[in-house]
């Protein structure tokens, strides 16, 4: 097939929805508000922009280097799918239990980053947003669809996601007050359910590829 025949917009729409489920920017908004509570309005907006630019850069670099990393460690795509699916499931279970960011950042990372004025890159961009789940999903999709148009489309999808997340973060104080903790927890659990289904799909496709006799 040519790069043109492989191009399917639904793949990238599914990836966009998957990123929202994995990253869960609505669930991270209370964390963002807490981390930037000491900043002025202009500083908070700048931090939101820094965080989402960093997310776009991290994911696009992962997209471009994903196949090279797999080849360097002699890891098959199917094995990576299975590992990525298990990771997504673990994040999904944490989200369905109502945990907003604890599964993406350990206590040591929290204590190290709590005193930093610039929280846009660490811990917001990484590990809270561009964490292992988002990175592994990006690598899997980039490896499956490696044509020039596909890479451009995936990169554009990442940029669109970052723009949406930036808009959410800009309005974070108002949205958090509007939804309340209960509303945010409900959204987090729904995103966790979607993410769990994506994780199972990853595992099923990986097992079918690695063990074709089971299919």
Automatic annotation (TrEMBL):
**UniProt keyword list:** Cell membrane, Membrane, Transmembrane, Transmembrane helix
Pfam families tied to this protein = MarC
| Subcellular location as annotated | Cell membrane
What is the membrane topology noted in the UniProt record heading this document? Multi-pass membrane protein
Q: Which InterPro entries match?
A: Multi_antbiot-R_MarC
Q: Which domain of life is it from?
A: Bacteria
Annotated transmembrane regions: 12-35, 47-70, 82-100, 121-142, 148-169, 190-211
Mostly located where? membrane
- UniProt record similarity statement: Belongs to the UPF0056 (MarC) family.
Q: What is this protein called?
A: UPF0056 membrane protein
Q: What is the lineage of its organism?
A: Bacteria, Pseudomonadati, Pseudomonadota, Gammaproteobacteria, Vibrionales
């Amino acid at each position: 097939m040519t790069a043109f025949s492989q191009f399917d917009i639904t793949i990238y729409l599914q990836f966009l929805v998957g990123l929202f489920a994995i990253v869960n920017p609505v669930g991270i908004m209370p964390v963002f508000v807490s981390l930037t509570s000491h900043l002025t309005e202009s500083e908070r907006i700048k931090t939101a922009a820094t965080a989402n630019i960093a997310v776009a850069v991290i994911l696009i670099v992962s997209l471009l280097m994903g196949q090279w990393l797999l080849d360097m460690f002699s890891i098959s795509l199917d094995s990576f799918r299975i590992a990525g699916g298990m990771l997504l499931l673990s994040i999904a279970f944490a989200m369905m239990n109502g945990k907003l960011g604890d599964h993406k950042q350990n206590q040591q990372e929290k204590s190290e980053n709590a005193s930093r004025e610039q929280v846009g890159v660490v811990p917001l961009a990484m590990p809270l947003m561009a964490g292992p789940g988002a990175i592994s999903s990006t690598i899997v999709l980039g490896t499956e669809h490696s044509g020039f148009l596909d890479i451009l489309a995936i990169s554009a999808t990442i940029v669109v996601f970052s723009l949406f997340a930036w808009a959410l973060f800009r309005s974070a104080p108002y949205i958090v007050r509007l939804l309340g903790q209960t509303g945010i927890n409900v959204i987090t659990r729904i995103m966790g359910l979607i993410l769990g289904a994506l994780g199972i799909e990853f595992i099923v496709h990986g097992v079918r590829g690695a063990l074709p006799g089971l299919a």
